[in-house]
Amino acid sequence: MSSTRPTTAHVVVVGAGMVAHRFVESLLSRSGDAWRVTLIGEERRHPYDRVALTSFFAGASADDLTLARSVTDDERVEFLSDDPVVRLDRAARRVVTRSGRSVGYDRLVLATGSYAARLAVDGFDLDGCFVYRTLDDVAALRAFVQRRSAELGRPLVGTVIGGGLLGLEAAGALHGLDVDCTVVQSSDRLMSAQLDQPAGDALRRLIEARGIGVRTGAITTRLDPDAAGRVTGLEFRDGSYARTDVVVFTVGVRPRDELARHAELQVDPRGGVVIDAACRTSDRRILAVGEVASFEGQAVGLVAPGYAMAEVAATGLLGGEAEFPGFDLSTKLKLSGVDVASFGDAFAQTPGALDVVYADPIAGVYKKLVLSDDAKTLLGGILVGDASAYGSLRPLVGGALGGDPAGYLLPENAAAPKAELPDAALVCSCNSVTAGAIRHAVHEEGCGDVTAVKACTKAGAACGSCVMTIKKIVSTELAKTGATLSTALCEHFALSRRQLFDAVRVSGLSTFSGVIERFGTGRGCDICKPVLASILSTLTGTHVLDGENATLQDTNDHVMANMQKDGSYSVVPRIPGGEITPHGLLVIGQVAQDFGLYTKITGGQRIDMFGARLEQLPAIWKRLVDEGFESGHAYGKSLRTVKSCVGSTWCRYGVQDAVGMAVRLELRYRGLRSPHKIKLGVSGCARECAEARGKDVGVIATETGWNLYVGGNGGFTPRHAVLLAESLDDDALITAIDRFLMYYIFTADRLQRTAPWFEDLEGGIEGLRAVIFDDSLGICGDLDAAVARHLDGYEDEWKATLDDPEKLRRFASFVNAPDTPDPSLAYTVERGQPRPATEEERQGGGVLIAGTMLEVRR
Question: What is the rounded average pLDDT of the residues 232-249?
Fold first, then answer.
């Protein structure tokens, strides 16, 4: 919208991508009414997250990728979409858009980004050839694949030309669409700009293990058409030929510098508008940021340097001084299931640089640290197969490691040196808060706990994944002053979660009111209530909806289902070990069809059904329970899944019955409440198809028994599990897992996964072994008894709910009309299944309203 407020200056931003959005956001947050902004975009959309394009193939919508609209909706901003600038008149200080609109400026910021290049070969523009750059690009690619595969009646054969970071993401997207995909790379290895030869070889093995082909040293010379003008094959310089139905070019990007060239701004011969350290072009009234900008002869297609330029440019317009420090080319591969990172001087080009390398070809792991000639200063590194150390190592580039470099590379990474993060290290990436800013908040702003730091700096206020790191920094800084970080659970309990667990266990109290009367104050809050609910569930085995404890639960536990983005719920029956009978599949399919639910097989080998209304949940679960299904506890801080391969039952490589063990473990720990969710994996051999080492508890079969790994997880901060014990028989394995899980439940902090809990354990892995196998704390009897109580008291929560009319009264969208559907729910059909309609689709009509979906679909 246009501003009516008096302003002193006007900045026009040409381009409406991620970097332009960051510039406007930074400028507005610091300028008051000093500037008004006109943001001019080429695409018809609001600025969106181009880095997350691949998530579009996993079901993310354009709305999901849209960046904060508070920027474009600000009254100081006029946003012009779908109207690119076609001419820049420097003398008149005006830009002219495609529609003929003329906009004057006091300052101009070029943020036009780049465009995706295509190979200059015959056939590059055939039908079926795509680039991977914008939402329109990926939407067109997906539509083509779906349409063409339906026409041919078979999965397509696809080729991605270019084996860099973007090429591998594109290959993963095609693979997810059931395309038989091959990556063609002209150099001798994948990601050749970031990885050395051994790392490239390791990455190739990981990519091929996912079912994606790799062809290196292959230079495409032409693309061949069929009779209808569609791409049908590729020819290579060595004379070979490959059939293909779809081609995606990911051979690099080129700066969109044509406006600057026509306006006679200085442009680098290799492309890009030349800027100085203040992001100023050869015309001091014009700045350039992001991929269109060339600094010291480089124009780089990464978003992080663009963000840094945006902050520098905004600071300059506000009268401050800031300089762009140069390009940080650190990268991390975002292809699901493949962990790759490169940072700093990865190729050891610094004179005298030393390499420290760890390689495990069987596990698909290659790690290299590049050090100064005295082996003290970290210069860079490469991580393939296990990039869990990336977050802690990258901020240390240029500084001392503070310990044995090998400690950062070995699988037993819990023993790695704990170097203090430098002030410049980014702790909260969501809100760009550094370790130095957190230290400043502690020492200069008087913040004495995580909550105060969050309020002062916004660190941890978004996704929350960095809270444990923030807590460690705050604790360390307070210790330097002689103070200590409070371990109080919240304002109502001075005890930590561990202390509260012990207090409830010893006192025998079984209600929240009893616990808070004896050990706390007030009425409780949304922090302590769910914690007490979990503790009481573990110690007393009561139903989550029994008595006053039902009021302690959050939204998901309260209705025993996960709420989705549109207010509907998911239904997730337990499928132990991923094993299900044909009859069970038919039951789930019939339920999903009858209730018009979206169905998806998850990475945890379960079937999720989405779109259930609140009042439908009992009817859906009645059908499932009658057929022998139980709650999968997808909504709880509890055991989620035990993933397994087929093991020795079917696989010619399997050496133990992985499915049988997975089923045994899942039935043993189902419903076990804990500080955070728990995931297990069981692999029938060292090939590790169940990805057990990425789980809280991982079990891998050997010829002599089971190897037990603990403390792994995926998510924001991935961790590889650490080997706890080898060659265990079935009973010894289960006893060890019993004690590990209960020790974790007894002692972990609120919302602490097993990985960070394990890292904080005194004595590390050896200390944990002593507790579990040697009973060094004298608590093994208590841990075993706790498991026994859990097994004796287990009941399926949904079955118990269906048998209790009082509990069933909770499941109504409207109190006075319990069977009336929520009219705010609306859906559209995509790929033959319902999904929540976007706001644009709702306004355009033709959507399915809740309560009518079943009839429409039939």
Answer: 95
Q: How much is the pLDDT for 465?
A: 55
- 478, 448 contact by CB (below 8 A): yes
Query: Pick the residue with more confidence: 767 or 13?
Result: 13
Mention every residue, 6+ apart, whose C-beta is less than 8 A from residue 679: 604, 639, 640, 641, 642, 643, 695, 696, 697, 713
| Per-residue pLDDT, 6 | 45
3-state DSSP assignment of residue 2: coil
For residue 409, the model assigns a pLDDT of 77
User: Dmax of the chain from CA atoms?
Assistant: 84
- 163 contacts 181 by C-beta, under 8 angstroms: no
Q: Which of 436, 463, 466 is nearest to 450 (CA)?
A: 466
Q: What is the pLDDT of residue 403?
A: 63
Tokens coding 849: 């309203």
791: helix, strand or coil: helix
Report DSSP letters for 196-255, one per residue. Answer: -HHHHHHHHHHHHHTT-EEE-S--EEEEEE-TTSBEEEEEETTS-EEE-SEEEE-S-EEE
The CA-to-CA distance between both ends of the chain, in Å, stands at 44
Comparing CA positions, the residue from 451, 534, 498, 485 lying closest to residue 749 is 498
For 29, the enclosing helix (H) or strand (E) is helix 18-31
Q: How far apart are CA 63 and CA 79, in angstroms?
A: 17
Q: How far apart are CA 837 and CA 848, in angstroms?
A: 8
pTM of the model: 0.56
Q: Is the pLDDT of residue 31 over 90?
A: no
Query: Comparing C-alpha atoms, which of 223, 217, 242 is closest to residue 120?
Result: 223
